[in-house]
Every structure is written in structure tokens, then in C-alpha cells.
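Sample A.
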Amino acid sequence: MLRALVPFVAFTTLLGAGAAVAAVATGTVTAVDSGKHTVTLSDGMTYTTTPTMDLSRVQVGYTLKVTFN
């Protein structure tokens, strides 16, 4: 019985390790909303930043690399 559980435990451990890896998205900025703290990229996704992030320097047309957990 114990021998049958070893692959399952190894698999679930690998799944848990993958959850801690940061994801990355790169694209051209299509919209910036400083009031809502959001940036929309050309992939159609809207990303929310922290309220302390200064978005005044981010402009439509810029290429950004977004890293998130």
C-alpha cells in the first residue's frame, strides 16, 4: 500500500511547487486607469497594481512585462 502512494505524493508535491512560481505577461499597453490602479495590455487582460504604484509614467503604446504570483 505504501509503495502505491509514493508516486501520488511525488506528483502532489510537484503541483504545490508549481503554484509558487511567478507568471509573466508581456504586451503593449492599451489602457491605463490610475484611479482603479489597472493596466490593460494588448492580450486583452487587465492587471491590477498596488495602490502605491505610480502609474503616471505608464502610457498607452508602451511595452510592459508584468510579473505576478
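Sample B.
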Amino acid sequence: MSYAVSSALQKAVFTALTGDAALAALVGTAIFDAPPSGAVPATYVTLGPEEVRDLSDKSGHGARHDFSVSVVTDAEGFKAAKDVAGAVSTR
């Protein structure tokens, strides 16, 4: 199993999310590559956790990287979370 591209993948996803104007309009800069500590924004997006599965075969090394992108909010109901999730899913 290989974590060789794990860091680059996380960076690419984080860059795509933080560079999205529609998502920024909903959460500002509250996009994190790990759950925030201390005082947290009312609504935020976070990456993780990651699960890696070996997909190597006789032709070479390979791995499948699955990770979550979570929307967390203290807003009542689901509308705020669904609006943010919709913006995330278009990335």
C-alpha cells in the first residue's frame, strides 16, 4: 500500500475547496484540513479521515484513497448544511 500521493491529494482537494468562490460565500475561510480546535465557526468544512487500500498488482504499485469531506454546523434544520454540501459537491 502506498501513501506516496496522500499529501499531494489532500493539498489538491484543500486548494480546490478554498479556491471556490461559491463555497467561500457560504463559509468564508472556515475550511480546514483537520478538525479545528478551540472556538469553531458556526458552519465549517473539514477534510478527513482517510482510508487507503492497497490496489497493487503485478504491473505496479497502487492504492485507493477514500476520505470524507464533512460539513459541520450549529444551525437549526438542514438547509445551511445542505447548501454548503451542495457547493462542496460541485468541486
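B remarks: Strands lie at 31-32, 43-54, 63-73. The helical segments are 6-18, 21-27, 79-89.
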